[in-house]
Structure prediction request, 233 residues.
Amino acid sequence: DVVLTQSPLSLPVTLGQPASISCRSSQSLVYRDGNTFLNWFQQRPGQSPRRLIYKVSNRDSGVPDRFSGSGSGTDFTLKISRVEAEDVGVYYCMQGTHWPATFGGGTKVEIK
Amino acid sequence: EVQLVESGGGLVQPGRSLRLSCAASGFTFDDYAIHWVRQAPGKGLEWVTGLNWNSGGIVYAASVKGRFTVSRDNAKNSVYLQMNSLRAEDTAFYYCVKDKHNILTDSFDSWGQGTLVTVSS
Prediction:
């Protein structure tokens, strides 16, 4: 199975400051059709996960534009341009290029 | 509004069985694939299994293959997860997840609130 390694594990951030989360894959996530099926999920405390980003850099409907995704091949990044209080939670990357789908271990974003 | 409501969780002894249900509403159920994803308390997410709109294309994670069986009843807008030979490491919240497509993809569209399964003697 594909292993996704996220860093850091914990990310204390000052309100209004940027945050960046890395996700590295054990193998390329480029599918034979050229698509890269790398997603980002947010899980707020006590809630179910919700998808923020699909295919590396596409924001889901209703996701604020302060969230952005980038990367290619095996290295991916989720950025929050200015962290707000509602962004507290755990963020997971997930790949769907190679089945079974696998998730990264998660990065906990908290306010300093 | 899409709603997925899981039920059937609880405390079960190792080696015993449990059947989870997921009741769906707010969308045309038989147009979409469904997944089960689990999360051990305080831990990360693990995809468990999924099936296409027509019950085809069933895939299982290696950790549950041979012990878990997924099925759906489109007439009842429901998906089921039969879990046999349960182990302590199966302890987790089990989420029912709607796909954005009629076959299994990585487009995890909507999630239920989860049901907790605790395997312990």
